[in-house]
Amino acid sequence: MTIHRNALLLRVMTAEQRLRTLFAYDRTNRIFSVNLTMQQLKVLILLTRHDGIPSQELTRHLGVTLATLSGIVDRLVAHGYATRTEDLHDRRIRRIHLSPAGREVLTEIMDSGNRAQQRLLARLDDETLLMLETVLTRLLDAARADALEQGVDIPDDLESHSH
Amino acid sequence: MTIHRNALLLRVMTAEQRLRTLFAYDRTNRIFSVNLTMQQLKVLILLTRHDGIPSQELTRHLGVTLATLSGIVDRLVAHGYATRTEDLHDRRIRRIHLSPAGREVLTEIMDSGNRAQQRLLARLDDETLLMLETVLTRLLDAARADALEQGVDIPDDLESHSH
DNA sequence: CGAACGGTTAGCATCACACGAACTAACGTC
DNA sequence: GACGTTAGTTCGTGTGATGCTAACCGTTCG
Question: A GO term (biological process) for this protein (chains A, B) (predicted)?
């Protein structure tokens, strides 16, 4: 049983990998049209998981000084992708937030294969779609259980939608 | 029927989006540790779909001159991420190839949520895994049909494994 | 009040990219 | 073979982003 299960897991992961390969490198990806540097992208990614993070903490994640980070954030703010606010309890602290435009551009970059994938979904018969829905629902349940075990934050919309 | 199907498609896509959100912004992503600029990353992405592409075509995709591209490729070659070869029929033409190291780093960047995803798969019961396998197989079939219709190249390992 | 802290600014250096110009090798046509 | 065109590389120049240290200012805390 375990051997069969391992083979099954492997088959699933291999198939997934292949699909991902097909989608991941879509050259219509937003990354080709957006004007972001790597450090800017890294900050945006960090803000997705830690919106409102203080600058000091960002410097630790990025491994740069406050002076450098200040410049990076300046330029993100100038692009409209991030905003700065003062901490409520300590006015020295600047909290850096992802702006709606920043979130949007990041979503577009990360959703690189979405359009192609939607084309594929439209080709599936209803039975397969229902199966996929079941699987995804169980995966989301597993994700929530996993997150609980890891003590990891779950995005609000994920959590509120479970009920 | 169509209304039901549309609702089903929407549910599937929404669930997928949620899962993707969970995985996409993992800050252990290789992107935080690799020393690549955006233009270099773009070239690597392009090479994944068009390995051995002539320089001239790369300039069109990137929207830069040959002089600029030459520098970018120089640095990718220096990093060990790409190689240059001469075209077999026209010795003026340089074909740019993704190196194994280049492919590896790109795979690591794109597979940002892979470890977390494997943890989730291990939580699924066999029935769900079998359903997932069926779905993925059908998705791959759809992908191949889609690619044929679009006249798009399929990576060799995808094609050879269908038989 | 003074020391410590968080963030910003200025100055400087480096790197990558971007372009046009110049150059060389290669190709195709006459 | 001569010639015009093409593909790519190199060079020089300029720009922007990043990276650091030092100085500065406002804020916090003992």
Answer: response to stress
